[in-house]
Every structure is written in C-alpha cells, then in structure tokens.
Amino acid sequence: MTAALLGSAPDPDGPRDLPEDLCGRIAFVAATSEEAAAARAALVAIYGDAPPEEAAVVVALGGDGAMLETQHRLLGRNLPVYGMNRGSVGFLMNPYREEGLTERLRAAQAALLQPLRMRTTGADGSVAEALAINEVSLLRETRQAAKIRILVDGKERMAELICDGILVATPAGSTAYNLSAHGPIIPLGTNLLAMTPISAFRPRRWRGALLPGTASVAFEILEAEKRPVAAVADYTEVRDIRRVEICEDARVRLTMLFDPDHGLPERILAEQFTV
Predict the structure, then answer these.
(1) Known active-site residue 64
(2) Three-state SS for 242?
(3) Buried b (16+ CB within 10 A) or exposed e, 83-102
(4) How many Å separate Cα 262 from the centre of its chain?
(5) Does residue 236 sit in helix, strand or coil?
(6) Parallel, antiparallel, or unpaired: how do β-strands 127-132 and 217-222 relate?
(7) DSSP label at 19?
(8) Angle CA(118)–CA(66)–CA(133) in degrees, nearest 5?
(9) Annotated catalytic residue: which of 11, 17, 21, 64?
(10) How high is the pLDDT of residue 122?
(11) DSSP code, position 17
(12) DSSP per residue over 55-91, as a string?
C-alpha cells in the first residue's frame, strides 16, 4: 500500500454518512502494482489526497487483496472503503473510472460486514488472535494429511476429519477460497457461515456444513506432532497449532461501498449462476 491507515477505537454508531463536500476528504491507497500506483497518481491529481485520520472515505485501488489489506488497516474505525479494480478478479471492487468519482461515492450503497475472530493455541500453550474478513483456514504443513476434530458450540460434530485442511468462511469470503474448495456461496444478510473441507479423504463424501453466524467453532488437531497444521486468518498465519477457536466478532464492523448497479449482494447472487 502507498498510504498507512491507522486504527482507532471502535465506532459504536456504525458507518457515518458522507459529507456533501468531499473535496480534500478522500484518502487514496493503492496496491504495489504499476497499474494501481499510476491510477492513484491520476486520481490524486484530480481530487487531492486527504490524510487517513482526516478522510471521510477511503478509495482502494488494486484487486481484492488491496481491499482486504485496506480494511485490515482500518479495523476499528469503520471508515467506508470504496474499491476500484486495478487488479485481476476484483470481486470486491467497482469498475475503474477517473471521472465522476465524488458523484459515485455519494450514490454508492453500503455493505456492512463482520469479521471472524481466530484464537489459536500452540503446543507450548501460547495463544494468538487475528481477524479474518474472508475466512479462517487450517492447512496441513507436511506431506501427511491432517487429522482434525470438529466441535460446534462445544458439541463434537465430527470425531476425526482426515484432509488437507478445512475453512470457515464469511458470506463476503464465500466466493473466494471457499468457492474454490467447492463450498457454497452465501448471500449477504443470511447470518450464515460456511464450513468447508479441503480435499477431504475421510469421510470422503462429506462436503461441509452451513452454520448460523452465532456459532462458535473449535478445531482440535489430532496427532499434531506427526501431522502439523497451520491456521490462517486472511493474512495472519500461525504454525504448529493444537486448537483453533473461531466466531464472528460482533464488536467489529466493516463498510464497503459499491455502485448501485454493482452491489455485493447482486454480485454474490449472480456468481451462483455463473458457469
């Protein structure tokens, strides 16, 4: 990114309305690619560039990774982020155009998201926490398959899953790694999470589960010394874990802005009919 975004205390009142005059109130951030950097320079020349602590809205330039990184840097502030695609897939981004940006920002529709909180316990008892906007995934570290016990709300649901890994995805993340692992696409507002195995060996025909958003998930690693497992929450990886606990963090809210004809709910729905 070309600008640092600093977090602050959570905003209890949710996303703020954009001011009528956005002159000098937009912060532009960009991925490291030449295309994203050139787009940032062009937009700053037209609209100026506000320091993040004074901005009313942030415009992220790049692909979906740029959007996720920006949101992580803004965690706790709930500052609206409007993405424009200067990357590859850009599922979370709007089309890139230099003209009419302030009008697009005022007309944009907000999608409110809640991240997952991952809490891992290591072999030495050490605890690590991280937030995930897309998914929390467990992945084998060696050539041997992982063996994982699954608990939901404290109740054992599967005594042993033999697999390359398993993930829990939010609705916004259901079209990312979860979809590649043949998990279900989840529309926004359904208050559901997807639990999806990655290359399950036993039980071979298990395809995962849909869980209520309020569910508390725990994964316990079996034969951990022989079959080590890493846990990943978006960008944060913790290796050689023994236990992972995952739940929605209702204290943290994120706001993404989309053009009215390019909203995230519509894109998630349309993706289900893409062949």
Answers:
(1) yes
(2) strand
(3) bbbbbeebbbbbebeeeebb
(4) 19
(5) strand
(6) unpaired
(7) P
(8) 25
(9) 64
(10) 96
(11) P
(12) -SEEEEEESHHHHHHHHHHTTTT---EEEEE-SS--T
Q: How far apart are CA 70 and CA 49, in angstroms?
A: 16
* CA 144 to each of CA 36, 66, 177, 221: distance values in angstroms, whole numbers, following the listed order: 40, 33, 21, 13
Residue 33, CB half-sphere, CA atoms under 13 Å: how many? 14
Q: Which residue has the tokens 């692992």?
A: 181
Low-confidence ranges of the chain (pLDDT < 70): 1-17, 263, 275
Q: What is the pLDDT of residues 14-39, one digit of tens each?
A: 445 677 778 779 999 999 999 999 99
pLDDT, residue 54, reads: 86
**What does 150-213 look like in DSSP terms, one character per residue?**
EEETTEEEEEEEEESEEEEE-TGGGGTHHHHTTPPP--TTS-EEEEEEES--BSTT---EEEET
**pLDDT at residue 163 in the model:** 97
- Residue 16 has a pLDDT of 53
Task: Tell me what pLDDT residue 19 has.
Answer: 73
Place of tokens 């600093």: 6
Angle 256-49-20 from CA coordinates, rounded to 5°? 60
Query: Rounded CA gap, 70 and 208, in Å?
Result: 30
